[in-house]
TrEMBL record:
This is RNA polymerase sigma-70 factor (ECF subfamily). The keyword Transcription applies. Belongs to the sigma-70 factor family. ECF subfamily. PANTHER family: RNA POLYMERASE ECF-TYPE SIGMA FACTO, RNA POLYMERASE SIGMA FACTOR SIGV. NCBIfam families: sigma70-ECF. Keywords: Sigma factor, Transcription, Transcription regulation. Coiled coil: none annotated. The lineage of its organism: Bacteria, Bacillati, Bacillota, Bacilli, Bacillales. It comes from Sutcliffiella tianshenii. It comes from the Bacteria.
């Protein structure tokens, strides 16, 4: 009887994992990529995330959503990858290719795409503490409360980091705009 229950439990655990991979895999891979800026490494991180998820599904306390829980694991695994010596000494030439929004004219589409690409590049240059709140808030549409849970930081700390990140981006983008105008 116990063996049958264990078999049923593992099937439901496996089907839950498959569902989580289907629902959140792509989103989590994007988050990992925004941290590490390397496609292959982001894929490795996501494999680690879902292996960890599988091993800890039984201990998930449901104090948050699966999405928040998986996002937290992804952030931690991404930070771990950034700390590793091999990554710190690896120069990545990968760039994020922004999706160009549909525009009325080819010219406006090109300008919009360039501006978006420049913004993304500036976000990726931010220190990790500022970059992660920008990514989670603007690119993943998480609330300050959810980010606080994921990063295990006080909500006011999240708000302060968002403010500082916005200020740094504003300054960098204004400098870039002034450089364009002077040419």
């Amino acid at each position: 009887m116990e063996a049958m229950e264990e078999h049923e439990m593992s099937i439901s655990k496996e089907s839950l994992l498959e569902s989580l991979i289907e629902d959140y895999g792509t989103e989590l891979k994007r988050v990992a990529y925004l941290y590490v800026k390397d496609q292959a490494l982001a894929e490795d991180i996501i494999q680690e995330v879902f292996i960890s998820c599988y091993h800890h599904l039984d201990s998930f306390r449901q104090e948050s959503s699966y999405r928040t829980w998986l996002m937290r694991i992804t952030v931690n695994k991404s930070k771990d990858a950034l700390k590793r010596w091999s990554f710190r000494n690896f120069i990545s030439k990968a760039e994020i290719e922004p999706e160009v929004l549909e525009q009325n004219t080819p010219e406006s589409a090109t300008v919009s795409g360039m501006e978006k690409k420049e913004l993304i590049q500036e976000v990726l240059k931010l220190p990790i503490k500022l970059r992660e709140v920008i990514i989670l808030f603007y690119y993943k549409d998480l609330s300050v409360e959810e980010i606080s849970t994921i990063l295990q930081l006080n909500e006011n700390t999240i708000k302060t980091r968002l403010f500082r990140a916005r200020e740094k981006l504003k300054i960098k983008l204004e400098r870039s705009e002034n450089a364009w105008k002077s040419n």
